[in-house]
């Protein structure tokens, strides 16, 4: 039996040296040290030995098993090191090669325009206010001096859900809600960006869904000159320091007096071209002093408080600023269009 154990040891050593993968080495372990391995077979035959031989053979079997185990572990370490070396060789990086460019996305040009305007007004002390896109008839119209049956409602062809619920047609309801929340105490100084909805035919300059940014400033002693100064800062920020503005009389039910603001055409510098329809001016937004009725309905004393409001379309601002000819480009997700504004 001693000879048998020595033979098993030599056979195991030979096969361990020949093993070239972790799997083949594991097979050797099972072959010699497993429950049905060759060492186990020898130990099962010890019952036939005399009492004097059993401890001798048992000790030898343990020594052979320990030597085989040590050899397997040593070979396993060697195979692991070899595998790591081969992996490192295969994954060697040539640091002299140029890097691969990574194409990253960026904010949509419309969102950039909105954030640019937000940043300007936040710097002027305004807060950004938001409200629901599904609005009540009261806040969308009545609280803005547009009672039921008012002809100006027809100008905003609305998506009604019920008789009292609709998709908001402008962000002015956010102004009305904010005024109510202040319970007749000023100042109120907010801008309201968001999506609005109107039943309109989509074409190069119209969309049934678009965005608006409206502003509101209510306090004591607010005058038309405060409005004009604010709009002048806005125009120069968006279109350059050399832009001039003009205010033309207009009508909005929620402001009195009401004005339209034009800027001098940046293409022809006011000389007249096809962009400005040869007038030298381009219409940008509507504005005016908050109507006393709007203030009174929100609980403000219109003899003590005055204010101004204005509203603009970021799509129109972006189209004029970046020479975009079709409003539908903002919504069709054409990557070729979007890539043009990565560096803006």
TrEMBL record:
Report the cofactor remark. Answer: Binds 2 magnesium ions per tetramer.
**Would the keyword Magnesium turn up in this protein's UniProt record?**
yes
Superkingdom assignment:
Bacteria
Sample GO molecular function, one term: transferase activity
Instruction: Tell me which CDD domains the record gives.
Output: PheRS_alpha_core (cd00496)
* Keywords carried by this UniProt record: Aminoacyl-tRNA synthetase, ATP-binding, Cytoplasm, Ligase, Magnesium, Metal-binding, Nucleotide-binding, Protein biosynthesis
Q: Where does Mg(2+) bind?
A: 256
Q: Where is the Aminoacyl-transfer RNA synthetases class-II family profile domain?
A: 110-340
Q: Where in the cell is it found?
A: Cytoplasm
Please list the cofactors this protein needs. Answer: Mg(2+)
Q: How does it assemble?
A: Tetramer of two alpha and two beta subunits.
Question: Which E.C. number(s) belong to this protein?
Answer: 6.1.1.20
EC class of the enzyme, as a word? ligase
Q: Name one Pfam family in it.
A: Phe_tRNA-synt_N
User: What's a GO cellular component annotated to this UniProt protein?
Assistant: cytoplasm
Organism, by scientific name, is Allobacillus salarius
Protein name as it appears in the record:
Phenylalanine--tRNA ligase alpha subunit
List the InterPro entries hit by this protein, alphabetically.
aa-tRNA-synth_II, aa-tRNA-synth_II/BPL/LPL, Phe-tRNA-synth_IIc_asu, Phe-tRNA_ligase_II_N, Phe_tRNA_ligase_alpha1_bac, Phenylalanyl-tRNA_Synthase, tRNA-bd_arm
Give the UniProt family note.
Answer: Belongs to the class-II aminoacyl-tRNA synthetase family. Phe-tRNA synthetase alpha subunit type 1 subfamily.
Q: What is the lineage of its organism?
A: Bacteria, Bacillati, Bacillota, Bacilli, Bacillales
A single GO BP annotation from the record? phenylalanyl-tRNA aminoacylation
Record field: catalytic activity = tRNA(Phe) + L-phenylalanine + ATP = L-phenylalanyl-tRNA(Phe) + AMP + diphosphate + H(+)
């Amino acid at each position: 039996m001693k000879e048998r154990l020595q033979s098993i040891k030599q056979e195991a050593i030979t096969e361990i040296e020949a093993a070239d993968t972790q799997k083949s080495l594991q097979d050797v372990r099972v072959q010699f040290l497993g429950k049905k391995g060759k060492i186990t077979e020898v130990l099962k035959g010890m019952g036939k030995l005399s009492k004097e031989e059993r401890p001798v053979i048992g000790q030898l079997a343990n020594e052979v098993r320990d030597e085989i185990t040590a050899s397997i572990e040593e070979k396993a370490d060697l195979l692991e090191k070899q595998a790591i070396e081969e992996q490192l060789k295969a994954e060697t990086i040539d640091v002299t090669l140029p890097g691969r460019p990574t194409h990253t996305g960026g904010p949509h040009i419309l969102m950039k325009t909105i954030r640019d305007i937000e940043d300007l007004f936040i710097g002027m002390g305004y807060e950004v206010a938001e409200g629901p896109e599904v609005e009540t008839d009261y806040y969308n119209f009545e609280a803005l001096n547009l009672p039921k049956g008012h002809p100006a409602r027809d100008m905003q062809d609305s998506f009604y859900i019920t008789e009292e619920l609709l998709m908001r047609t402008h962000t002015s309801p956010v102004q009305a809600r904010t005024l109510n929340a202040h319970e007749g105490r000023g100042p109120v100084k907010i801008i309201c960006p968001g999506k609005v909805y109107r039943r309109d035919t989509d074409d190069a300059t119209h969309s049934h869904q678009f965005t608006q940014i409206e502003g509101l400033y209510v306090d004591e002693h607010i005058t038309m000159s405060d409005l004009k100064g604010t709009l002048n800062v806005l125009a120069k920020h968006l279109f350059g320091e050399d832009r001039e503005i003009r205010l033309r009389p207009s009508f909005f039910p929620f402001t009195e007096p009401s004005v339209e603001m034009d800027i001098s055409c940046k293409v022809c510098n006011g000389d007249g071209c096809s962009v400005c329809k040869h007038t030298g001016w381009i219409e940008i937004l509507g504005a005016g002093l908050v109507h006393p009725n709007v203030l009174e309905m929100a609980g403000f004393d219109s003899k003590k408080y005055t204010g101004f409001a204005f509203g603009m379309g970021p799509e129109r601002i972006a189209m004029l600023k970046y020479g975009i000819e079709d409003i539908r480009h903002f919504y069709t997700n054409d990557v070729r269009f979007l890539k043009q504004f990565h560096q803006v």
